[in-house]
Amino acid sequence: MYKVDFPKDFPKNFLWGGATAANQIEGAWDIDGKGLTTAEVVRKADDRKKMSMNIVDPSSIKAAINDSTTANYPKRRGIDFYHHYKEDIKLFAEMGFKVFRFSIAWARIFPNGDNLQPNEKGFEFYDRVLDELENYGIEPLITLSHYEMPLALTQKQNGWLDRATIADFTRYTEVVFKRYRGRVRYWLTFNEINTGTWGFHETGVVDSHLDKKEQENVRYQALHHQLVASALATKQLHEIDPKAKMGCMLARMQTYPATCRPEDVRAAQMEDQKNLFFTDVQARGEYPEFMNRYFAENGIQIKMAEKDQEILASSPVDFVSFSYYMTTVTSAEAGEEVNGNMATGGRNKYLEESDWGWQIDPIGLRITLNEMWDRYRKPLFIVENGLGALDKLEDGKVHDEYRIDYLRKHIEQMKEAIKDGVQLMGYTMWGPIDLISFSTSEMSKRYGFIYVDQDDEGNGSLKRIRKDSFYWYKKVISSNGADLA
Fold first, then answer.
1. Among this protein's residues, is 263 annotated catalytic?
2. Whole-prediction pTM value?
3. What SUPFAM superfamilies does the record tag this protein with (predicted)?
4. What are phi and psi of 220, to 5 degrees?
5. Where does 132-236 show beta strands of DSSP type E?
């Protein structure tokens, strides 16, 4: 009789933790030699459900530079992690974190992006953060570029559209890898790299004056340069610190067909292919044939250097990470759309939605874990997943059973995927402490297990308060996912 044992629980070395980004938590935007970043010139949104980025053009950048306040640019203040990191990491340790995902602000290390010497004050801050994590035995997972880059590179060479930015980035990654050799085992190059198809926030490219066809060509060209830079950084890491691992990071947008009509199924397949294209390149080392056809049929011409394909093929990533917040529905015909985390698609009548219109689909996480494992056969890491909600502080407490319910259902599906045979490394929910929203730059959209006393205008004591979910997640980690009650 053929009998095979299958895993029934989370692996013993499973990495439980939380994820953040420098531009959403650090603050201290203009001290200790840090340069201005692209994230700090994007105005806060006017409509929390549209999820569209405000238009960035030379005039808006100039206005932002001339505005030395944080009123319209909340990412400049974050939640002042820069001065509260010890307190915050202590709280993460109290929950039992095995890993903490954070990003290094490129402009703290190289204020203009192309400086020849790094800013030592910037390094000293991250030295202290790593010291604190080591005190509690928490693994760092570091993102090298998380929706920000030195603004000076946009002004000088229009961000990633210029091939020169590859050399600027790899100069930055080299000094970072050498500085933290032996101290950091897990790295990511670009956060949600596929969202670069939406423009400035990921690529630092000003293209608002172009028509849609020209924008698409420019964005894919800039993203090609990022893909090359990612491969070069992966090669650097393997040479500088052979025991360390590099991962890629995707905003996973699982797409369902609206009906079983073949036309709808094909439309959904094409959307998924475009979503997974970036991970295909980073994990497999080559441009997939379906995108070569897409480029040809849509007049997109990618300028490649002679050795680019060799570079991509020589250094695939070690593991595949992704964010997962929602799924969408696609039809061959136009229909009602919803928005979330840069994903747009049809409304699914079988799913509930968050206050921000994001469709909640725990089973979709199991589906995407299985599909990505089958596609790449590399360890997977869920590095973002969470519920943004309008939390209420009542009598010094936050009773967020809705968040516990959301996370419980997603973790249950993670466990099912592990039983399916998926090799899952870890889970860093977004974000373990309330922070500034990426898409809207508001504070009201709260994800954390820890409440931060700050409103959308920046008023408040910045006091940290444990929510009910704090104690629940502590129990989940201590039981290695066995106790989800």
1. no
2. 0.96
3. (Trans)glycosidases
4. -70, -30
5. 139-145, 186-190
Helix residue ranges per DSSP H, 301-361: 308-314
At a CB cut-off of 8 Å and minimum separation 6, what does 250 contact?
192, 193, 194, 275, 276, 278, 279, 320, 321, 322, 323
Element (H, E) at 338: strand 337-340
The two three-digit tokens of residue 131, written as one number: 């010291």
Mean pLDDT by 10 residues, the chain (485 residues): 80 97 98 98 79 77 96 97 98 98 98 97 98 98 98 98 98 98 98 95 95 96 98 98 98 94 95 96 96 95 96 98 94 64 71 88 98 98 97 96 98 98 98 95 96 97 98 98 97
What's the topology of domain 15-478? TIM Barrel (3.20.20)
| Cβ neighbours for 385, distance < 8 A, ≥ 6 positions apart | 323, 324, 325, 365, 407, 410, 427, 429, 430
How far apart (Å, rounded) are the C-alpha atoms in residues 50 and 356? 9
CB count in 10 Å sphere of residue 390: 12
How open is the CA angle 382-140-327, to the nearest 5 degrees? 15
Task: Spot the catalytic one: 40, 192, 202, 384.
Answer: 384
Apex 362 CA angle, 358 and 367, nearest 5: 110
Which amino acid does the sequence have at 111? Answer: P
